């Protein structure tokens, strides 16, 4: 691999730098008239050595920050290539936010018809807007290549006139349609990510007679281990948040709380990677029993001004600010 480039993953595909082992399958896939005839910069027939040279060239271009040509891999097999090339006619020192790049791709014939091209192209463009700070992406497609035009439209590029381009594979200049789009247009066309499950967690700020708040440390082995949180836990099916808290406080802290002593205070609504947390936070100043870490977890009674010294899950950060204002 040329550089440490973190592969781009989509639902079905991995986009990663080409490797020398890709040369043989790449040659087999692109040395196909049905593929080559649509590509401006690919000769036909495609000499086998050219595959090795091309792969080495892609590394040099990536290292120089000129172009990013990647393998499209599905289920561990190469199915095509995709790339973005920065426009050369612009001065290198030009501000990043004015940079434009040209998108190009091909998919081997056996993988046609599955919508892989828009999946790969949408992901690469999103990566490029984010990581390269591009202003605009453009592309062209042969005037009679309706499939490729549909791909470009689907990822949010819009028609931007016509042109003529030399096609190596055909040894002739051919009429093409030009397309372009900026970050907002491409973002609007990207399919919404699948919805995340909503996880309902009830939590409580126990406040002692000195106005200190109880935090519990998440134990090793759990997600977000080591962070400090408000006592509580997931609400079971058919349970109310109050009943869940009463149960959790008995299990975790060995104290008895009644519903009447749980005052609704505020809530957290936060998207974690795998789920969306909805967490009502109650205030409680009265309980029976002596608080202890019944599950071996570390506990801390913390003055509100000191809460910020305790690293907490990201969902809790706004809650801490609200507690500080309130208490
Ligand atoms: N109890 C509590 N949970 C919190 C807080 N902030 C926050 O993001 N969470 C998250 C961490 C967990 O993903 C979830 C609480 O789940 P839990 O405590 O019942 O479950 P768990 O740790 O055994 O489960 P898991 O995270 O390992 O899946 O809510 C908080 O202040 N208190």
TrEMBL record:
What is the originating organism of this protein? Siccirubricoccus soli
Q: Which cofactors are reported in the record for this sequence? A: Mg(2+)
* Residue ranges annotated for the N-acetyltransferase domain, each copy included: 13-193
Q: Which UniProt keywords apply?
A: DNA damage, DNA repair, DNA replication, Hydrolase, Magnesium, Metal-binding, Mutator protein
Family listed: Belongs to the Nudix hydrolase family.
In Pfam terms, one family for this protein is: NUDIX_4
Q: What EC number(s) does the entry state?
A: 3.6.1.55
Is Metal-binding a UniProt keyword of this protein?
Answer: yes
Q: Does the keyword Lipid metabolism apply?
A: no
Q: What class of enzyme is it?
A: hydrolase
Query: Which NCBIfam families does the record associate with it?
Result: mutt
Supply the PROSITE patterns for this chain.
GNAT, NUDIX, NUDIX_BOX
Write down what this protein is called: 8-oxo-dGTP diphosphatase
Catalytic reaction annotation: 8-oxo-dGTP + H2O = 8-oxo-dGMP + diphosphate + H(+); 8-oxo-GTP + H2O = 8-oxo-GMP + diphosphate + H(+)
Q: Which residues form the Nudix hydrolase domain?
A: 197-325
């Amino acid at each position: 691999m040329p550089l440490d480039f973190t592969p781009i993953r989509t639902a079905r595909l991995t986009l990663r730098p080409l490797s020398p082992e890709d040369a043989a399958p790449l040659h087999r896939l692109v040395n196909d008239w049905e593929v080559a005839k649509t590509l401006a910069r690919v000769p036909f027939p495609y000499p086998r050595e050219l595959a090795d040279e091309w792969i080495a060239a892609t590394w040099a271009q990536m290292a120089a920050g000129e172009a990013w040509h990647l393998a499209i891999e599905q289920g561990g097999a190469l199915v095509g290539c995709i790339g973005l090339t920065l426009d050369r006619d612009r001065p290198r020192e030009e501000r990043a936010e004015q940079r434009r790049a040209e998108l190009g791709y091909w998919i081997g014939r056996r993988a046609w018809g599955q919508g892989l091209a828009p999946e790969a192209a949408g992901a690469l463009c999103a990566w490029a807007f984010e990581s390269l700070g591009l202003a605009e992406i453009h592309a062209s497609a042969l005037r009679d290549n309706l499939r490729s035009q549909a791909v470009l439209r689907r990822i949010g590029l819009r028609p931007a006139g016509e042109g003529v381009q030399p096609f190596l594979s055909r040894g002739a200049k051919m009429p093409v349609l030009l397309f372009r789009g900026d970050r907002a247009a491409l973002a609007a066309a990207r399919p919404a990510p699948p919805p995340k499950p909503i996880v309902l967690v009830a939590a409580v700020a126990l406040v002692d007679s000195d106005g200190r708040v109880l935090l519990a440390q998440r134990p090793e082995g759990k997600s977000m281990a080591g962070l400090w949180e408000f006592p509580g836990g997931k609400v079971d099916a058919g349970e109310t948040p109050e009943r869940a808290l009463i149960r959790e406080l008995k299990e975790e802290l060995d104290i008895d709380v009644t519903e009447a002593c749980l005052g609704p205070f505020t809530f957290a609504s936060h998207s974690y990677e795998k789920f969306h947390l909805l967490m009502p936070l109650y205030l409680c100043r009265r309980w029976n029993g002596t608080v202890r870490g019944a599950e071996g977890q570390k506990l801390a009674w913390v003055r509100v001004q000191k809460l910020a010294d305790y690293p907490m899950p990201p969902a809790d950060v706004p809650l801490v600010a609200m507690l500080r204002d309130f208490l």
